[in-house]
Write a structure and sequence with these properties.
CATH class of the largest domain in chain A: Mainly Alpha
Distance between the termini of chain B: 52 Å
Strand content of chain A: under 5%
Largest sheet of chain B: 2 strands, antiparallel
Radius of gyration of chain B: 27 Å
Order of helices and strands of chain A: HHHHHHHHHHHHHH
Oligomer: heterodimer
Distance between the termini of chain A: 35 Å
Largest interface: A-B, 102 and 105 residues
Helix content of chain A: over 70%
Structural class of chain B: mainly alpha
Structural class of chain A: mainly alpha
Number of helices of chain B: 12
Strand order of the largest sheet of chain B: 1-2
Strand content of chain B: under 5%
CATH superfamily of the largest domain in chain B: MetI-like
CATH topology of the largest domain in chain B: MetI-like fold
Number of strands of chain B: 2
Largest sheet of chain A: none
Number of helices of chain A: 14
């Protein structure tokens, strides 16, 4: 990096003219705002004149004009380097706005179309006896299925993930720990449908079990484990070593030290990590589709027979393709997003509330 | 052994000590448990590969077509004929489109959060981008199919009209934009958060000294970024992109809802049609008989190996960077 500095500087310095005074030729502070207003006005004007239909094209035109005018103005009044800097700044801002647009659009679409049929009836009823083209019906069976499957997956994945993280931080040395770390990282990238196929080959095809919520939960737990391991590991690393040493110096055995000192210190962060992992698997569709099969009826037993789940319900309703089923799909999407977002917010809340006590 | 028992009873302190501290056995159990779950994870990875391979071999042994070059998927027919050529093509093309769109924007956002945004706003803004990752993929799917696809009709026309001469953007079939290009755009939105967050972490690790040295030499903010931040973060951005690529390759529901599948290879990315591994599994699973399932598992194995390669490479790059840069010391 320092080479880059040495290489670039001497070449560039002579090119830029020495300023007569330190305050010479800067664009005023209001210049970006002014240019933005002008370019939006021009963009809209041009859009009207040339009869462009899409408002997106107007926006693009305005953005291009903004960049061009900024560059020219800055290059004339200031210098080329400042002009490049200003263009880079506006591009970086544009990037951020580009990321926010789909998020807002998605939220707005889901909420505005989801509230149409979302009410107590929708949450409290199943699709039993409702043909897919008529209105009515609800998500109760799917909500129940999602809650049970996610709870089961958490019961499987959280202890294993937690213990693995404890192993990596407190015990792990040498080749095995390195291998576990690497494969946990790689495991975070396993496509959800592959996890589903794995359970399908072992649980269903080899052992001969039928579709059930539990099979789906097992696939979800495969997706959840690496996430729990990673976040717990980060949290355990934040626990100050002094606490461990103090406990060991008092003659506490290592396992009690971990259970009574290390884990309680990091419990807030661990809970956050687990909840974020839950939020991530709650929206998984592909493994559920392969393993849980889907049903229109309420099935409270995750170990026997087909269940439904919110993501699967959305997919089924989408596939039907009627107006009523689209409404149901959006409403279910709203329920699912609300569920995931609440989990997310609660998790962040816990993280802030019980931040690990470091730096003593 | 008879001699040891008396010695223990003779010396009083050790006995009472060993009665009070039950820690040694507990230590062994706990260490064993935690080590065991670590090993369990490794076994899990190995058995995923093993079981998928086992079923895939069954499927491949009965395949009448060529697994790599056949442009068809009739695995449930008799005799079964299926090949992954179209799926491989669709998966790679849609992921490449996603990368081309997402990586520059993600780097921009990461720079925005690490270097441009007002200090106090940086954390909330980063959270907003992370929220994109919290949206379930099926919701992206129906949003893409019911909202994005109609919206993109105009863009498709425009691309066809002005960039049609590039062949790639020529739209030869009439139809809604349920194309690999639309899938690529949707995947780009979905992988933005992961690419952004990893790049952001790397950009935040750039030694302050480098940046301040550049500033002291009179560099503008953009020059600081170009000379000290980007060179430092290059490998981080590469591995972040590969993590994003891994996600894009394996995405199922968003592709399954948006794409109107067909078993054709066409470089006209705006034409509706094509397919990806995950989408094909989701679409064909319901109608597949037992052998059809094995065939789908075989294609799942290819997908698994593909993502394994991409993710493994990304992690290796990250790990190497950590060792040599000294940023994480």
């Amino acid at each position: 990096m320092s080479h880059a500095l040495q290489d670039q500087r001497p070449v560039r310095a002579p090119k830029s003219p020495a300023p007569a005074s330190l305050t010479r030729g800067g664009l005023p502070r209001w210049a970006p705002t002014g240019i933005a207003v002008v370019s939006v006005a021009l963009g809209c004007g041009a859009g009207l004149v040339f009869g462009l239909h899409s408002k997106i094209q107007w926006g693009l035109l305005a953005a291009l004009l903004f960049v061009a005018i900024t560059y020219t103005a800055s290059a004339v009044v200031e210098n080329r380097r400042q002009a490049k800097d200003r263009v880079a700044t506006s591009l970086v801002w544009v990037c951020f706005v580009l990321a926010v647009i789909p998020l807002l659009s998605l939220m707005w679409t889901t909420i505005s179309r989801g509230v149409k049929v979302l009410d107590g009836d929708f949450l409290g009823h199943s699709m039993n006896g409702v043909t897919s083209f008529e209105e009515g019906g609800g998500v109760y069976h799917a909500l129940l299925g999602t809650l049970e499957q996610v709870a089961l997956a958490t019961l499987i994945a959280a202890p294993i993930g937690l213990l693995t993280a404890v192993y990596l931080v407190e015990y792990g040395r040498g080749g095995l720990a390195k291998a576990v770390t690497f494969f946990v990282d790689v495991m975070t990238g396993i496509p959800s449908i592959v996890a589903g196929l794995f359970i399908l080959t072992t649980w269903n095809l080899m052992l001969g079990f039928g579709p059930s919520g539990f099979a789906g939960a097992m696939a979800l737990s495969i997706l959840m484990m690496p996430v729990v391991v990673r976040s717990t590991e980060e949290m355990l690393k934040l626990v100050p070593n002094e606490l461990r040493e103090a406990a060991l110096a008092l003659g506490v055995p290592k396992w009690r030290m971990i259970l009574k000192v290390v884990l309680p210190t990091a419990i807030g962060g661990i809970a956050t990590g687990v909840m974020l992992a839950v939020a991530r698997i709650a929206g998984e569709t592909a493994p559920i589709m392969l393993l849980v099969f889907g049903t229109q009826l309420i099935n409270g037993n995750p170990f026997e027979g087909a269940q439904s789940s919110l993501p699967l319900y959305i997919w089924e309703q989408y596939k039907v393709g009627s107006e009523a089923s689209y409404d149901r799909a959006w409403a279910a999407a709203l329920v699912l997003i609300a569920f995931v977002m609440i989990l997310n917010l609660v998790a962040r809340g816990i993280a802030r509330w019980k931040a690990p006590k470091t730096g003593r | 052994m008879a001699s040891t028992t008396p010695t223990q009873t003779d010396t009083a302190p050790p006995v009472s000590r060993s009665e009070r501290s039950t820690g040694r056995a507990g230590d062994k159990i706990f260490a064993g448990l935690s080590k065991g779950s670590g090993i369990l994870l490794l076994v899990l990875m190995a058995s995923i590969a093993a079981f998928l391979t086992y079923r895939a071999v069954i499927a491949l042994s009965k395949n009448e077509g060529n697994f790599l070059t056949t442009f068809d998927w009739n695995a449930s027919a008799n005799p079964p004929v299926f090949g992954i050529a179209v799926l491989l093509f669709g998966t790679v093309v849609s992921s490449i489109i996603a990368m081309v769109i997402a990586v520059p924007i993600a780097v921009g956002i990461a720079l925005f959060i690490s270097h441009y945004a007002p200090r106090k706003l940086a954390a909330p803004l980063a959270y907003v981008v992370d929220l994109l990752a919290a949206v379930p993929s099926i919701v992206y799917g129906i949003w893409g199919a019911l909202f994005l696809v109609p919206q993109l009709a105009g863009l498709n026309l425009w691309l066809d009209q002005y960039l049609g001469w590039t062949y790639v953007f020529e739209k030869t079939q009439i139809g809604v934009a349920r194309s690999l290009f639309t899938v690529g755009i949707l995947l780009a939105i979905m992988i933005l958060p992961i690419v952004t967050s990893v790049s952001r972490e790397v950009f935040l690790q750039v030694p302050r000294m480098n940046e301040e040295a550049a500033l002291a030499l009179g560099a503008t903010r953009w020059e600081v970024i170009r000379m000290s931040v980007l060179p430092f973060g290059r490998s981080g951005v590469i591995s972040a992109s590969m993590l994003g690529l891994g996600r894009a390759l394996g995405e199922t529901m968003a592709v399954a809802t948006v794409l109107s599948p067909s078993f054709l290879i066409s470089f006209h990315v705006l034409n509706p049609g094509g397919g990806t591994f995950a989408q094909n599994i989701a679409a064909k699973f319901d109608e597949a008989n037992e052998f059809g399932r094995d065939a789908l598992i075989a294609s799942g194995l290819v997908l698994f190996l593909l993502t394994l390669l991409v993710n493994g490479a990304a992690r290796l790059i990250i790990a190497r960077r950590k060792e040599f840069s000294g940023a994480n010391a």
